[in-house]
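Support reply, case 0932

Customer input (verbatim):
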Amino acid sequence: MATEPEAPGPARRTPPAQATRNESTGNPLRTAVGPPAAGRTVPAPSGRGLPTRTGDSSPEWLEPAMAANGIGSFDWDIRRDVLVGDQRACTILGLVGQPFDRTSAAFLSLLHPQDAPVVRRRVERAVAELGQCGAYYRTVFPNGELHAVRFRGRVLADAFGRPSRMVGFVWDATVELHKRERADEQAQLREERSRFIKEAARALSEAVTVRDVARVFTELPLPGLGPDGLALASLEAGRIALLGSSGYRSRLSDQFDRIPLAPTHPAAEAIRQRAPIFVSSREEYQERYPEAWDWAEESGRSSWAFLPLVASGRPTGVCVVSFDDARELDADERTLLSTLGGLVAQSLARARLHDAEHELAAGLQRVMLPRTVPAVPGVSTAVRYLAAGSGLQIGGDWYDVVPLPGGHVGLVIGDVQGHDVHAAGIMGQLRIALRAYAAEGHPPAAVMARASRFLADLDTDHFATCTYAEVNVDYGVVYAVRAGHLDPVVRRADGTAHPVPVSGGLPLGVDPDEEYRVTRFSLDPGETVVLCTDGLVEARDMDLDTGFARLCATVSGSLPGIDESPREPLEELADRIASQAADTSEREDDIALLLLRWDGPAGGRAAQQLRRRIGQADLARIAELRGELRDALRRWGVPDLIDTAELLSSELVTNAIRHTDRDAMFTARLYQEHGRARLRVEVEDESDLWPTRRTPGEQASSGRGLMLVEALADTWGVEPRGTGKRMWFELSS
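Our regenerated output:
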């Protein structure tokens, strides 16, 4: 409620006689004080005690001037609380012919509830200060119409300086009220539109992909406009590609998708001129664009706004806003739509760049990672890759499954430092190199050492963590090597899961001369090895121990049997693990996941044959071979042969690789004959030099190999085999 400036009114003092006549009633301000102008059919105010500016009666021109301007007058006796007004004042208040008890409280009851307290305070202040006041207030006529009134009044004092009367004028301000209401509505609409632009800018800035931009645009509530149709299209090689629409039939949308944009179409004109085109009616459309009228007629709309999408000075598409009724948009509405078009253009350009980058990144990642995991008899595998929730969603995490000589399989999981295209490129080179080293048949420690040297030679200032595991498919033994990576997790046959400690070395590329140790552990049929990168078990709000505990709990959950579910249980387990790190914007690291289940041969028993190649002068491999043989004999049910077989096998293999310059092939087979088990061990090499049995002295440190074989084996021998020879022995259980 705006306060009127208080102009100096015709303030006059009440003559002493009049003041004396009024002071007997007391001060009505103690109960209710109200502004002047309000009395239903009130008598005209008396002019007594209101001297003119010169001390004479009111000038003759005052009444005609007030009548001509629709101004009424009032007189309020403050002590007696009697309020009177002339006929025009009553008319302004809508009180003609209505009874009015002429008290200030009755007058206040006529005012709008929001205005009455304001008027009361101003009048009370004027009475207390013997000053003047003015106010703007609303009143409701008997017929329910809302009107507005302005008044100005001045308080007059008696001979003793006490407030006695308030006199003043009132005039109708309803036209001003409507103007204010319209101004308030416009101000509110402008505020809504300003808020809409802010919210639209925020929503479009959060839109990541082109699909997101189209969804946000077609769901925008345009304040004060209420469009009946929205469409967003990009311009690609002279054709319109519809990205999203609302308010249109799907058949119509499909009809105009991927069609050439005719130069006579208003959208084409908007793109050429890089300025919005507004069409207010069907008649205007038909007159300005007759060749494009068929499209407009079929759409069923009556007015349109075509907003070009221009980003970095280049047109990229068009927004179409349409209405069912003919509509002439005003300047504010056109400005709103033009601003919206600019926001959509910038957001769409950013989203298209984002989509292009991520399409490139996804293609690069697909090339770097194996398309399919090779099938290896005796094992089942499952893999998952989840990109980080932010950035290019490409990085250095990778997995691989490598078929090895002898029917074995190698598992690789690794993570190159970084989450960019550079890291992905290094990962691709390292993956190929490591795969080549493994496929050549090198033992796990040698594979890891060569990969570390390869990465160091690249001189990229990057390092990589990696775990490489070679699985003997024949009997389920795993040889694992770890280079700064995570330990594998094993799900056992009883459903429990736990990490398996693996001897670790430095990450690849840190020290090219690093030597890695091998850790061996065994699997029973149906048991699963889980390899993953650190994005699965480590995050900003989760330490490594907590992550491993959560992973083990997930892996150990119940799974259906292979024959109990139409889907491979290993795939279900992979999905369950990956769901822990659902693709969200909060995840900061990539995740690679590799699972292998050793199925074993039919019947659940390990194959009763062990075959391994031993590299020339690779004495460390002999210890691994002894461990494999012990494991195999235990699984084959002949533990009583372990010690003898291990000793004799070690002698034959050592003899082959020390006295020849070629690799040796070790083979152990178990035969069942007449209820008895017979073990045959063969060592083949390509040397034509036959072994010679020697008789060493008591102090000799070698030369007793064949003596031990002859003494402990049931039978033994040496056989030629084209190129080279085969040494063998047999043991019976």
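We compared this against your earlier run and they match. Two observations from our side: The two ends are 111 Å apart (CA to CA). The CA atoms of residues 664 and 685 lie 5 Å apart. Please reopen the case if you see a mismatch on your end.
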